[in-house]
Amino acid sequence: MVTPDSAAWEPEHEEDSMPTPEIMPETAQLFAAEVLAGLTKPGQKELPSKYLYDEIGSKLFEVISALPEYGLTRADERLLRLNAHSVAEELPGRVVIAELGSGSGKKTRSILKAFSRRGPTFYHPIEISATALAMCEHELSDMDSVSIVGFEREYLEGLREVAARRKRGEKILVLFLGSTIGNFDPPADVEFLQKVQGILKGGDALLLGTDLEKPMGQLIAAYDDLLGVTAAFNLNLLARLNRDLDADFTLSQFKHLARFNPETRSIEMHLKSTRAQTVSLDGGRVKVDFQDGETIWTESSRKFSFADLSRMAETSGFKSVGQWVDHEWPFAENLWIVK
Ligand code: AVJ
């Protein structure tokens, strides 16, 4: 794992013997700042969904992925398993693989396998969650012809690092799987893809996993499962603020809510305050008032149409060269090349 050169970051320790920190110092500052901004902003309170994935959240997401109601991860994995070779065929030559949000690393295996048949392969998972990064490095450590160098960074920062290390003649393939792009509300989705494109060069590629539109009932069931795992995943965000930001949320006074927003065609997760209450953060230095029934918006998960996908490729400077679709759980892998 590569860690930034920061004076605050115990430089006297060796990287290998160092315990994996939950969060880097500058990442921790951004975390506190973004949480505060989201909870004190006028109107709809919100928390960035990227903070759902601390150790407990990452593990709960693994469980969600195994639930019968939630077919997204299995569809993603199926598509990659069946089509990894077709993806590799589209990208001849030397290819370095960078992944935005490594997750557990499980679905990446088939892609790495397809590329490593050609020879030694470099893989750079980029993650702000130390837990997810460690899970991924562990999961893939048996792949002898794959060298893993992970970056505990924000996506774009990590990708810039990968691009800066590029050797002559190498192409970069960026994996952005699991429909994480659906968590970026328009126009942030296209703006993000434009930034990715801007870091890359002509001929580099993006493999983008996108969840497709499906009946609302199926979506509600997937994001409000009967066992309450998604509810726990969502509520854990408040537990995390209690742990990491010295907050005092009473978890029993917030309720998980999943609702479909037809305007944005996304499933939204909220945490609803079941009474009027005041919560303190930072050991009492910050107070946040909640009205009875007021919600914190914690995630949007957009469901895409094929028209959305072609428009997104076009406006972000990519050319689509392949698309693979799962029909059991409508989902698409899209292979785009930088124009
Ligand atoms: C991992 C971002 C794809 O949006 O479906 C699962 C996260 N949230 N259940 C999604 C999630 C609630 C998930 N992604």
Weakly predicted, low-confidence segments: 1-21
- Bound compounds: N,N,N-trimethyl-histidine
* Helical residues, percent: 25-40%
Note the overall shape.
globular
Report the count of strand segments.
Answer: 14
Which structural class best describes the helix and strand composition? alpha/beta
Mean pLDDT: 92
Distance between the termini: 32 Å
User: What share of residues are in beta strands?
Assistant: 25-35%
Sequence of secondary-structure elements = HEHHEHEHEEHEHEHHEEEEEHEE
Determine the number of helices (DSSP H or I, runs of at least 4 residues): 10
Cα-based radius of gyration, to the nearest Å: 20 Å
Largest sheet report: 8 strands, mixed
Fold and architecture overview:
β13 and β14 form a beta hairpin. The protein is of the alpha/beta class. The chain is built from ten helices and 14 strands. The N terminus is likely disordered. It is globular, with a radius of gyration of 20 Å. The protein starts with 24 loop residues before the first helix and ends with a strand. Strands 2, 3, 4, 5, 6, 7, 13 and 14 form an eight-stranded mixed β-sheet that branches. Strands 1-12-9-8 form a four-stranded mixed β-sheet. N,N,N-trimethyl-histidine (AVJ) binds next to β12.
